[in-house]
């Protein structure tokens, strides 16, 4: 069983998602996509399998989104993918791929829907928000 996270260690949501995967007893393949970005086929497949539009997978905050004029609705998906490949910081994160599907895990708890193993203990996000109780159950 392979679980892959497209991770940015500087991102709290990405760190929380990785920690939830590990709390399920899974050591995922960690791809730091800023230094090892996916190729076009992989990125396109991740977006499609997550059920997102290309625009939904674009990150605006802390990126050259505005400077590159990416808000222009006339831009095609191919043009947006080109921008994401040229500037991987534009790829929203974290994408997680498991045998049960692909999700853009924002918020991080979305990873729970596609993990093949249950949580093994309590879990709180870095900000202290409890996500998994002491019985390993999701807190809503």
Automatic annotation (TrEMBL):
Catalytic EC class: oxidoreductase
* Pfam families to which the protein is assigned, alphabetical: ArsC
Q: What is the lineage of its organism?
A: Bacteria, Pseudomonadati, Pseudomonadota, Betaproteobacteria, Burkholderiales
* Species annotation: Caballeronia arationis
The UniProt entry, under PROSITE patterns, shows: ARSC
Question: In its UniProt entry, what is this protein called?
Answer: Arsenate reductase
Catalytic activity, as annotated: [glutaredoxin]-dithiol + arsenate + glutathione + H(+) = glutathionyl-S-S-[glutaredoxin] + arsenite + H2O
Name the Enzyme Commission number(s) assigned to this protein. Answer: 1.20.4.1
- Tell me which UniProt keywords the record has, alphabetically: Arsenical resistance, Oxidoreductase
Its family remark reads: Belongs to the ArsC family.
Q: Does the keyword Oxidoreductase apply?
A: yes
Biological process terms in GO annotation: response to arsenic-containing substance
Q: Which domain of life is it from?
A: Bacteria
Q: Which GO terms describe its molecular function?
A: arsenate reductase (glutaredoxin) activity
């Amino acid at each position: 069983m392979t679980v892959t996270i497209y991770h940015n260690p500087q991102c709290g949501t990405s760190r929380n998602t990785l920690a939830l995967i590990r709390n399920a007893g899974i050591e995922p393949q960690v791809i730091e996509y800023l230094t090892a970005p996916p190729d076009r086929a992989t990125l396109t497949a991740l977006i499609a399998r997550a059920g997102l539009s290309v625009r939904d997978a674009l990150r605006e905050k802390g990126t050259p989104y505005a400077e590159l004029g990416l808000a222009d609705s006339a831009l095609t998906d191919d043009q947006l993918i080109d921008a994401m490949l040229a500037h991987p910081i534009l790829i929203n994160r974290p994408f997680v791929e498991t045998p049960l599907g692909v999700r853009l895990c924002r918020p991080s708890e979305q990873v729970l829907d596609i993990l093949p193993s249950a949580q093994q203990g309590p879990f709180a996000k870095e900000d202290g928000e409890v996500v998994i109780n002491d019985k390993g159950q999701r807190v809503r």
